[in-house]
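Changelog-linked ticket: SN-glycerol-3-phosphate example.
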Amino acid sequence: MSNHRLNIWLLCASLLCPLSAIAAPPGSDNVQAAIQWAKQQPQARHGKPRGEAKPLIIAHRGASGYVPEHTLAAYALAILQGADYIEPDLVMSKDGHLVARHDNELGLTTDVAQRPEFANRQRTQMIDGVSLTGWFSEDFTLAELKTLRAIERIPQTRPGNARLDGAFEVPTLQEIIDLVKSLQLSQQRTIGLYPETKHPSHFQQLGLAIEKPLVKVLKRNGYHSARSPVYIQSFEVENLKTLSRLTSIRLVQLFSAGQPYDQQLLGSGLTYAQMATPAGLKAISRYAAGVGPEKSYIIPRDGNGNLDAANVTSFVADAHAAGLKVHPYTFRAENSFLPSNLRNGTDPQARGNSAAEIQLFLDAGIDGLFIDQPDIAVRVRQAD
Ligand code: G3P
Ligand code: CA
C-alpha cells in the first residue's frame, strides 16, 4: 500500500469509523486488490445507478469542509459520510492528463510556491479574460504534478484542514475513479461522479481540450450512458454541446453571473440571466439533463443578507417545466458563508445553522445540492 493510500485509510478511520467499516472485500489483503476486484464487478463496471436519492448530495470538492479540497482523502471522507456523488473539478496537465484542481493556477491549493525547482515556472497570463500570476497546470507534466502536495485554500476559515497541509497528492481522475470503485464495495452502494470541466475554452486554445480525454477515461471505466452514475458540468455552453455529441452521459449547465466565457469569445451576447428564463432553460434542456445555479438564482438574500422563504424565485419551477434537474451550489456551514439570519455568533469560523438553509432550499423544490460538509445534508435528508 502506497503512503498516500495508507494516509487516506488512516484518516478516514480516525475521523469517522473503525477500520472494519472500510475493510477490503473478503479474501483481499490490500486496497489495490480491492480495486482490481471492484473493476471486475458488473455493477461497478457498468455503473447502473440506483433510483437517485432526493435531494442528491454532491460532495463539493470532496468533504472539503474537513480535509483539503480535491484530495483522495476529501473524496473518501465524503463517501464515508454518505454523499451520493463526489465532485472533482478537472484541469489538464502539459502531457494531457486530467487532474483534480479547482483552478489551473496551482499556488492556492498546492505547495508549488515553496518548491525551488519550480520557481522559474511562475508566470502571468490571461485566464478567462483575467490576468493571473502563478503556476499553471498546463506547464507541468503529470509526473511533476504528482510531486506537489495539496494545501488548504482557506486556512483562516478552516485551520483544522490546514493541519493536513502536505499530507496528500494531487489526484488524477483515474485515481478518483479507482477510489470510488473501491469504496463502493465497502459501502455496498453506487457512488456517483460529478466532474466539472474547468476553463474549457482556455485548454482548447492550448490544444489540450478536456472533453475527449474526459469521455475516454469515463468510457474506459464503464461510464458511458445516461444511466451511468455520472453528471458532467460546465460553466461554459459550447463545450457541453460538444460533450452532448460525444457521450450520452448526463450534462449539467452551471450558472454564474455575467456571461459564460465561451459566449464572450463568440460575441454571442448570451448571458446567464437570459439562460435562466423559461426560454433559456428550454434551450438548455436540448443538450443538458440539469442545471447547477448559484444559490441566489433560487432564493436571493435580502438587502440585509438574510435568507427568507418569501423570496423564492420561479427558477426551480421553470427548470422543472423544461425537464431539468436543479442542483444548486454551494452550501457551507461556517458563519462566513451563511446568510446573516442563520449565523451563530460573530466568529467567522464557527458553524451556523446550515441545516436550516438546506431545509429552505429543499422546500423550494431542489433535486440536489453541492455541499462542503456532506454529513450535514445527510442528516437533514434523514430528518426530512
Ligand atoms: O460545480 C458546482 C460548483 O462547484 C461551482 O463552483 O467554483 O466551486 O467550481 P466552483
Ligand atoms: Ca465545481
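Closing comment: Example verified and attached. The pocket of calcium ion (ligand 2) is lined by residues 87, 89, 196 (CB under 6 Å). Residues 173-187 form the longest helix (15 residues).
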